[in-house]
Write a structure and sequence with these properties.
The complex is a heterodimer of chains A (about 110) and B (about 110).
Chain A: E1 3-5, E2 10-14, E3 19-21, E4 24-26, E5 32-38, E6 44-50, E7 56-58, E8 64-68, E9 73-78, E10 87-94, E11 101-102, E12 106-111
Parallel strand pairs in A: 2-12
Antiparallel strand pairs in A: 1-4, 3-9, 5-6, 5-10, 7-8, 8-9, 10-11, 10-12
Chain B: E1 4-7, E2 10-13, E3 19-25, E4 32-38, E5 44-51, E6 57-58, E7 67-73, E8 76-81, E9 90-98, E10 101-104, E11 108-112
Parallel strand pairs in B: 2-11
Antiparallel strand pairs in B: 1-3, 3-8, 4-5, 4-9, 5-6, 7-8, 9-10, 9-11
Classes of the chains: A mainly beta (about 110), B mainly beta (about 110).
Chain lengths: ~110, ~110
């Protein structure tokens, strides 16, 4: 079945530590790939997106993501997490320019 | 950049009444708009896809007679929750597509009492 999976429901990291949030997709062709962040009670903010080309994508707030076709993955990374990064992170896919589907989300907690 | 305005940002209504939520693309024309529902601590679930001038396509399990979607122009789509019940209380978010770009509204918190 076609799907987008975020294996980690909740991740806790210390402030200043590195972060990697995982995202895997299961579609026949490589979909468009996105990462969004959502603070409680708020809308979505786009962090970055991948359509084609360079597989390492730079986004806002110091985030980057790497597309790996062989692993059907699009993991989000940040070298040094700040307390303000605590939020819910969603991976999303758009297969064949269709509608956008979201992963279950990963809640990030940042320890001081 | 592209902006999508969604109103109201929050609404409280009595059980049995109807509520309309508007989603406008302010500086671009959106041929396709999407409506999502998000329950607390859960992901966004696609409810329906609407194309300007045609009937919306609903996801399986979403009642089309309860969640009426109108996409009368290239800049406006509305979602009407009819005969709302407490279980319809949720966060509703719209998205407008222009080419390969998807822009989200800020969401509407609906509480049915």
């Amino acid at each position: 079945a076609q799907s987008v999976t975020q294996p980690d429901i909740h991740i806790t990291v210390s402030e200043g530590a590195s972060l990697e949030l995982r995202c895997n997709y299961s579609y026949g062709a490589t979909p468009y790939l996105f990462w969004y962040v959502q603070s409680p009670g708020q809308g979505l903010q786009l962090l970055l997106k991948y359509f084609s080309g360079d597989t390492l994508v730079q986004g806002i707030k110091g985030f980057e993501a790497e597309f790996k076709r062989s692993q059907s993955s699009f993991n989000l990374r940040k070298p040094s997490v700040h307390w303000s990064d605590a939020a819910e992170y969603f991976c999303a896919v758009v297969p064949l320019q269709n509608d956008m589907r979201f992963g279950a989300g990963t809640r990030l907690t940042v320890k001081p | 950049g592209a902006v999508v305005s969604q109103h109201p940002s929050w609404v409280i209504c009595k059980s049995g009444t109807s509520v309309k939520i508007e989603c406008r693309s302010l500086d671009f024309q959106a041929t396709t708009m999407f409506w999502y529902r998000q329950f607390p601590k859960q992901s966004l679930m696609l409810m329906a896809t609407s194309n300007e001038g045609s009937k919306a396509t609903y996801e399986q399990g979403v009642e089309k007679d309860k969640f009426l979607i109108n996409h009368a122009s290239l800049t406006l789509s509305t979602l009407t929750v009819t005969s709302a019940h407490p279980e319809d209380s949720s966060f509703y978010i719209c998205s407008a597509r222009q080419g390969a770009d998807y822009t989200f509204g800020s969401g509407t918190r609906l509480t049915v009492v």
